[in-house]
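Let's practice the habit of predicting before peeking. Look at the sequence and jot down your guess about where helices and strands might fall. Then scroll down.
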Amino acid sequence: MKRLVLVGPGHAHLFVLEALARGPWTGVEPVLVSLGRRQLYSGMVPGYLAGQYALEALSFDLEGLARAAGARWEPSGAASLDAERRELRLGDGRTLAYDAVSFDIGSLPAGDTVPGVREHAVPLKPLERAVSRLVSVPEPGPLLVVGGGAAGVELALCLQARTGRPTVLLEDGKHVPRGASRMASRTMHGLLERRGIAVRLDSQVTALEAGVAHLASGERLSFGTCVWATGARAPELFATSGAAVDAQGYLAVRDTMESPSHPGLFAAGDCAGFVSGQHVPKAGVYAVRQGPVLRDNLRAFLTGSGTPRPYRAQSGFLSLLNAGDGTAVGAWKGLALHGRAPWRLKDAIDRRFMERFQKLAR
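Done guessing? Here is the structure:
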């Protein structure tokens, strides 16, 4: 019997669990390693913080998913990896040997080592902890959101929509959302201005203290709650694993999502660093497309049936950013639209995705 260990219940691993639920893989013992009992769907978290969804609408029951897939469930998380010995040390100290292991554990917030961030800000990850702190936003005073990517923009809009607090969005680049087309950026800047959200570009936080952000310009900004929604950095688990990592410290993978240094070691989603040269942004829509490829390649490795196939990242995707007020901004191939229609489309897509895997867990 060969043991397959799935570390993290990320988007790509949902497709592997779904395949196992449809029929066990001959001679394979699956194990799901998670940190906690549930997984929140990141695409609906801003809507939850805006008061648009109940928590159950964006939650996966991990014990139910594991049971449906015929997998053993380990909820203490992963502490370390020894790629040479093919062993995973769990959060409770036990060691788990594997024949194949796949990581879909996301990333950590970039810049969280800036002095004072861990003490005085709410980092967006781990997501469960961030949501529990942001759902009430008890501290009086302005909201400060650091990071002008898609996540930061959505959080600024959705938290402001629910709380009505004065809100400032800080970005160290030239426009928001980071990486958006000109039209999408103009549309979003216009929306933020109409909503009264102050956008500060070319602004970098050098330190936080209680209620005050220090900027590289020498300016000091007061806040009640600071949300740290910066870009991604690699999980620390891979640095001491003995496996190959890319230049940023993410687990190195070929286009088949398998490690070039250790056969049977796979990764998908934000924690994977593709070393073939293809550009794969750290975004959930890419992890979803990786799911079926990862599923097929894990099955081929473990059962000897089928040929590994490469993942090819899509050239672009439909971006739908929740504004928290029953509208959204949709962007596609340089075009952009703000209104209720993009919100209805986003809501329908998200609910359909959740229903697919929540039904499996039930």
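How did you do? The CA atoms of residues 11 and 288 lie 5 Å apart.
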